[in-house]
Automatic annotation (TrEMBL):
Belongs to the 4HPPD family. Keywords: Dioxygenase, Iron, Metal-binding, Oxidoreductase, Repeat. This is 4-hydroxyphenylpyruvate dioxygenase. SUPFAM superfamilies: Glyoxalase/Bleomycin resistance protein/Dihydroxybiphenyl dioxygenase. It comes from the Bacteria. Its EC number is 1.13.11.27. It comes from Pseudonocardia hispaniensis. Residues 41-171, 196-352 form the VOC domain. Its cofactor is Fe cation. The keyword Iron applies. GO terms for molecular function: 4-hydroxyphenylpyruvate dioxygenase activity. The keyword Metal-binding applies. It holds the Pfam family Glyoxalase. CDD domains: HPPD_C_like (cd07250), HPPD_N_like (cd08342).
């Protein structure tokens, strides 16, 4: 299948070509003809928040995203407001209940601000659902169509960990700004601070990681990537186990974490408590220039985790990371981490939690050949996260 047809419309919209995707998110060659559950790419990350009006302002002004579509009372939607924001190929949908009886408010009461739906674009919704059903998935919405003046979308939804779902979308016959029911918006053009979604990480309960790895293997035909974090990666205080599954061309990657037994409560336990169950822990946003992105985000008030000063002076680390495109002093000044594997290196940094609860946060990632996730940085990262956890009194 030609690359043009295997790319999701989100990527087409942002004019990212095959080489750019390989560089940004580690896209690999893949023959989709034998794939039991072909996925074209990410469709949208759908959030439920306490105040979508203000969250949309935050992601536009601080994260440089562009408002492209809207639904709400003014457009005939009495239940909720939803703002569709875009940065490069990344689409966020921020939803918040308007009607006091909206089920979105019940969800928000339990989980706080967070991600309800990791929507994926697929070429054939019915085939995907049929395969998922055979593999034992819970079908939340059977395949159905929605139509407006811009055309027709075919949709279905399957359940994954916690209260998270995957909506499956075929938008090949649709030309509107997002979905039927949304109106297009014009917004000031900004230079995007991130261009693509690299991976979405789920936190699940102790002992459940392999169950969900098996779910993605069976239901979506995803394969396991090499990165594996076992009990060997731990600080004195906390630990996690992690495995990564990906679709055929690695556009869609899902690391799955579970807590491991530590001397004190792990960061995954803290998440599970404050999110009240499993859910999305972080989104990794791919950028071609992490230094520029971090500077712009910091200037807008976004807070990042501190990196221990010793990280940059440790001779073992300096020897391991070798030469990278940014001088080490520039990285140290911003707290940007480096990891290297046999394929290349990556630069990464993590924000503090985005909302009131210590749950979902972002990673910024700039890849240079590496297909990893920063395993070598887990130790340094854990120590930084735990200092924050300690300040919140949750260790
Ligand atoms: Fe990550």
């Amino acid at each position: 299948m030609p690359i043009e047809q295997t790319r999701a419309s989100g990527e087409r919209l942002a004019h990212l070509d095959h080489d750019q995707l390989r560089q940004l998110v580690g896209l690999i060659e893949h023959d989709p003809t034998a794939d039991p559950f072909p996925v074209l790419g990410w469709d949208a990350v759908v959030w439920v928040v306490g105040n979508a009006t203000q969250a949309a302002h935050f992601y536009r002004t601080a994260f440089g995203m562009q408002l492209v579509a809207y639904t709400g009372p003014e457009t005939g939607n009495r239940d909720h407001k939803a703002f569709v924001l875009q940065s490069g190929a990344v689409r966020f949908v921020l939803t918040g209940g308007v009607d006091p009886a909206s089920p979105l408010l019940d969800r928000h009461r339990r989980h706080g601000d967070g991600i309800a739906d990791i929507a994926l674009e697929v070429p054939d919704v019915d085939r995907a659902v049929a395969h998922a059903r055979t593999a034992g998935a819970t079908i939340l919405e059977e395949p159905h169509e929605r139509t407006d003046a811009h055309g027709t979308v075919r949709l279905a939804a399957i359940a994954t960990y916690g209260d998270t779902r995957h909506t499956l979308v075929d938008r090949s016959r649709y030309r509107g700004p997002y979905l039927p029911g949304f109106v297009a918006c014009t917004d000031v053009r900004r230079s995007p601070l991130f261009q693509a979604l690299d991976h979405v990480v789920g936190n699940v309960e102790l002992g459940q990681m392999d169950r969900w790895v098996g779910f993605y293997n069976r239901v979506m035909g995803f394969t396991n990537m090499a990165e594996f974090i076992g009990a060997d990666i731990a600080t004195e205080y906390s630990a996690l186990m992690s495995k990564v599954v990906a679709n055929g061309n690695h556009l869609v990657k899902f690391p799955l974490n579970e807590p491991a037994i530590g001397r004190r409560r792990s960061q995954i336990d803290e998440y599970l408590q404050f999110h009240d169950g499993p859910g999305v822990q972080h989104l990794a946003l791919a950028t071609g220039d992490i230094v520029r992105s971090v500077d712009a985000l910091r200037a807008a008030g976004v807070e990042f985790l501190d990196t221990p000063g010793t990280y940059y002076t440790d001779p073992a680390l300096r020897a391991r990371i070798g030469e990278v495109r940014v001088p080490i002093q520039e990285l140290a000044a911003r707290g940007i981490l480096v990891d290297r594997d046999e394929d290349g290196y990556l630069l990464q940094i993590f924000t503090k939690p985005l909302g009131d609860r210590p749950t979902v946060f972002f990673e910024l990632i700039e890849r240079h050949g590496s297909l990893g996730f920063g395993k070598g940085n887990f130790q340094a990262l854990f120590e930084a996260i735990e200092r924050e956890q300690e300040r919140r009194g949750n260790i």
